[in-house]
Amino acid sequence: MSHPASITPSILNCDVAHLATELERIANADGVHVDVMDNHFVPNLSWGLPVAEAVVRSTRLPVDAHLMIEAADRWAPAYAEAGCQVVTPHVEATQAPVRLARELHRLGAQAGLALRPATPLEAVESVLGELDLLLVMTVEPGFGGQQFIEAMLPKIKRARNLISEQNLSVRLQVDGGVSRQTIERAAEAGADTFVAGSAVYRADDALAEVQALRELASAHQH
Ligand SMILES: O=C(CO)[C@H](O)[C@H](O)COP(=O)(O)O
Ligand SMILES: [Fe+2]
């Protein structure tokens, strides 16, 4: 069974000079998605722990940290300590996903795990039971504003099947190119948690955009 559709806007391309105002624009969202990039795991540098802490302090919404960084085992626990509700390192960047998930739980956070588009689901199959959230990337990680990779839809379906077969309640998140044009197909395929960056922040009325995305997703969930 899917969870009710959650919309978690990415603040990657918001106006960081006005962080508090930008967070108010999405006050009706289900969470805030903070993209951490280290210019090694991905060819881009965004921000790290101090900004994640500032976001946690500046919103009442739960914060999910998407860690596009190497040495995830070394750095991910600090995001749990900073008050992020969900911490999502990449499976390609952790040596010990189970130990890391358990460490995140011990620190009071939920444990996520993300997959690059080219990483097969088999990489997480045996550790799904330790997770609260599985993130299937629908763009190559590194930049906002890219086009949704349609070829990820079968992977989302298989991820949903794996979660059901193992009788788990892991959230299935999609991230990258999610908009009114793509969210229905992602929901149909089995996603229940939707990151949308440019679609929300480029809208004149971000609150209305969040609501529209949620309604479209809900209408297409199984
Ligand atoms: O992880 C990411 C990029 O690596 C971002 O979360 C994602 O790109 C959101 O932006 P958009 O909705 O514009 O694609
Ligand atoms: Fe992200």
TrEMBL record:
Residues noted as binding substrate in the record, renumbered to the chain: 10, 66, 142-145, 175-177, 197-198
User: Annotated Gene Ontology MF terms?
Assistant: D-ribulose-phosphate 3-epimerase activity; metal ion binding
Which UniProt keywords are given for this protein, alphabetically ordered? Carbohydrate metabolism, Cobalt, Isomerase, Manganese, Metal-binding, Zinc
This entry carries the following GO cellular component terms, namely: cytoplasm
Cofactor binding, note field:
Binds 1 divalent metal cation per subunit.
- Which catalytic reaction applies to this protein? D-ribulose 5-phosphate = D-xylulose 5-phosphate
Q: Which domain of life is it from?
A: Bacteria
Its EC top class is isomerase
Q: Which one Pfam family would you cite for this protein?
A: Ribul_P_3_epim
What pathway is it annotated to? Answer: Carbohydrate degradation
Concerning InterPro entries, the annotation shows: Aldolase_TIM (IPR013785), Ribul_P_3_epim (IPR026019), Ribul_P_3_epim-like (IPR000056), RibuloseP-bd_barrel (IPR011060)
Task: State the active site.
Answer: 35 (proton acceptor), 175 (proton donor)
Enzyme Commission (EC) number? 5.1.3.1
Family matches, as Gene3D superfamilies: Aldolase class I
| UniProt record, GO biological process | pentose catabolic process; pentose-phosphate shunt
For the keyword Transmembrane helix, the answer is: no
Against PROSITE patterns, the record matches this protein to:
RIBUL_P_3_EPIMER_1, RIBUL_P_3_EPIMER_2
Q: Where does a divalent metal cation bind?
A: 33, 35, 66, 175
Q: Which cofactor does it need?
A: a divalent metal cation; Co(2+); Mn(2+); Zn(2+)
The record's listing under HAMAP family reads: RPE (MF_02227)
**Purpose:** Catalyzes the reversible epimerization of D-ribulose 5-phosphate to D-xylulose 5-phosphate.
Q: Which family does it belong to?
A: Belongs to the ribulose-phosphate 3-epimerase family.
- Descriptive protein name: Ribulose-phosphate 3-epimerase
Q: What is the lineage of its organism?
A: Bacteria, Bacillati, Actinomycetota, Actinomycetes, Actinomycetales
